[in-house]
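Q: Okay, next protein. This is ZP domain-containing protein from Coilia grayii. I've checked the sequence twice, so it should be correct. Can you predict the 3D structure?
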Amino acid sequence: MRKTKCSDIFTGIIETECRERYLAVQVRLNNARSEPRFEAVDTTGLHPITKEYGTVCGYSSEFYGEMGIAELRASYFSCHTREQGSEEFAFNFNLIMVDQHGEEMTYNVSKTCTLPLPLSPREVICEMDYMEVNIDRTVPYPITGGGVEPQNWDSTISSVHSLASSDWQLMFLKEGPRSAPLSLSKAHELGYRLHFTPGRVLLRTPYGRPFSFISVVNGVPVEAIHAVLFSRQRWSVVIFDLVAACSADEGSFDGTTLNWQVPAMTFPLSSHAGFVSKTVNIGVNGKLLDPQITADRGYTLSTAGDKVDISIPFDAEGGRRHRFVAHNAYLEIYTIYLYYEGVFMDSVHTESRYWHTKFLMTPLLPHFPLTVNQTILEERIFTVYLGNIPSDVVLATVSINDHEFSVAMATQSGYTIVEVPHANRTHGYVMKVPFEDPIVRKWYFREGFLKYLLNVNFTLNVINQEDYYFHVSSFEARIHDVYPPSFNGHCMDHGILFKLDHKEFDHMWDITIGDHPLTEQFAAEQGYLMVNDSQSVLLDVPLFSPGYVYEGINLHRFFGSFEILSRDARTQEIQKYSAKRCPFQTTQIIVCSPRGVMTVVADVIKSTPQAIPQRTTLLDPTCRPKETDDTRVLFEFELSTCGTTLKVKNGMMIFENIIIFEPENIPSVRPVITRDTTFE
């Protein structure tokens, strides 16, 4: 069941305006998903205004769901409009909408209009969906041939006189065989509407009907209709010559302006001598504009040559710029209801007035953000430009390597974001992020090359609409001739001295001894001497400190090696080995190798009595020295052999063996007294 509400509920939502030749009813919708409907209301009842019905009855309607706008335009001579005198017209409509609950709601809209401009003797109106011609039936008007050859026109007039009856008939003229006259009821069935008022006769027809035809006038396509309305009344034949033509130029957009063309002399008037153009004017939304206002808005109206060129700059006042976000893109359309008036005068100074409503619209114009990497390597700062941002869009947030900031938060965190205005109604932003900021990803991706990476997600917002879209970009910077820290080692009598001169990118790597980071605390625990200042690092590693590897041991000398590692700070992968191998003089040592071999060099002649090196063994008597001299022995054995024992104490594994010297046995046949005992 339909509910009815008063029209005053629509204050601020619905607007009615009497324009030059029609009433405009515009509805701004909160819920644009539902298209409203209109009904004309008169004494005979309700008349739904469908698209088809509107084209024959003088109604044009448009619905733009994305923009939330619906508009109805009603001709002053539309069906069901009540004429109150020759210049006053009363309209009554029902607006039908569906609310959020799916229930139809009906609102009454009424308006009475007085003509802003008096009617000319002949008026041609070109609407969006139809064209109409109305003439003053009290003013003599020359009967013209339109686009018909003169001999055919004379033949047509003769036929009209011979075929005329008391009933009104309509004969359509165009090139080719002449059509038979039609009764008004038959013409009505074909979509041609004849309307008689006390002062005027009107013919209205939708575009593209069989009796209309396309012609090119001064390079501009036009659609025209030429009809002769006649009736025999008493001893004479009354004839009305009804001619209308409308520009069929669709308009164009060159990227900066909307352009539209009409012939300077509109067909069929241009084919007859005596017709001259008096004035041409333009306006918007059914209202003509003062020429100064037209110029101030940047509109151009050029009448040079045989046609009129009209240009409207993008986003000029009078049109409407619609913007929205769809599929993560900022889209906009500029539309304008252009209104054109041409006034012509015939040889007897009878005026014809030509009105044309043209809806011009740009294509869907996307504005895709663009980014430019303006980074200068020497500055060691990422400088990123984000541009092509419409003036009504702002940067809402920026995500840098998955860390999201508002513009204010980014500034507080040490990143620079500066807006850059441009003259073409766009603006941009410049963002700066230092290479060495912790948020920047960096890695040593191959020898000599250091890479910095910035992944940025810019989130943009259309002002006052809360429509968000985003733009993702990646920026990369590569620094050449970058190498991991490398220590220079020097052999000393007491050990190895390492030196590292600080370089700019040393922080990219961790310095370790084995798996342990080299810190001053770790160095002290291991017995190293470490000095670190702004210029260099000195590391003094005494012989037999943890971390040495020994090889080539004999009684005279051995080699000690020490290694320092440079690791990628991010992945801990080893990038550089700094190793030094030095020879050392052998005195007394005990060395356990990583593969489980113990090497011992010991002086054995300081005992009393003196031990003989060549006659020493380990706990296992079969384990004899690998090498001896006059005073020392060198044993080399695996920890699981030669009688080696193992015990665990305080979390440590202790391996132990003993060097033994057994005195030579005295033969029993020659006994002597001795104090020699076994040496360990």
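A: Here is a summary of the prediction. The CA atoms of residues 596 and 640 lie 8 Å apart. The helical segments are 51-57, 150-163, 184-189, 291-296, 407-412, 520-526.
Q: Noted. On to the next one.
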